[in-house]
Amino acid sequence: MLEAFLPIMVLIAFALAFALGSVVFSRLVGEKKPNAVKLSPYECGMPPVGSARERLSVKFYIIAMLFILFDIECVFLYPWAVVFKKLGMFGFIEMGVFIAILLVGYIYVWKKGALEWE
Description:
Helix content is 73%, strand content 0%.
């Protein structure tokens, strides 16, 4: 049984050795000349404005959660598509019910105005 996992263990060992070796090598060889420009935070090429502790609107979090909720649909669609022919009409109907439930939820959220960014 151990022989079956030997190639995987060797690959994991090489990956860990490469990762640790890269970090140690860059620490030993890299330049260490800190200055104000290098130590300043970098954000998309723009100088940072304001505090990093700025509060965000609750709308931001609601839209993020809704995006995750409706994006989960894709996670369930891929395996379904792979075994679609094996499942036959039963699988098709079950996925139709799943998509219908998500569609009803999406319409409800849309009508409540949760997707409006103001």
